[in-house]
Amino acid sequence: YTEGPSVVKRHGKYVLFYCANDFRSPDYCVGVAVAAKPLGPWTKVGDGPLLSRAVTGLNGTGHGDVFFDDVETMWYVFHAHN
Prior knowledge:
6 strands
């Protein structure tokens, strides 16, 4: 299942960050989709998750949020399991 959505508007498009799998699982991960309108249609970005155990080496990477620093660089913070 999916949960934990966060949407930001960036460069004229809406970017959706979402989590997949059970949050207790080491395979909890973050996916990304984009759309021209807030209600979609949404297109998944890439062939797999943006953040996952395979990408980061950390278990349960997910359920974070986006923020922008003082020069408008976009960052994503998330939790991982011990």
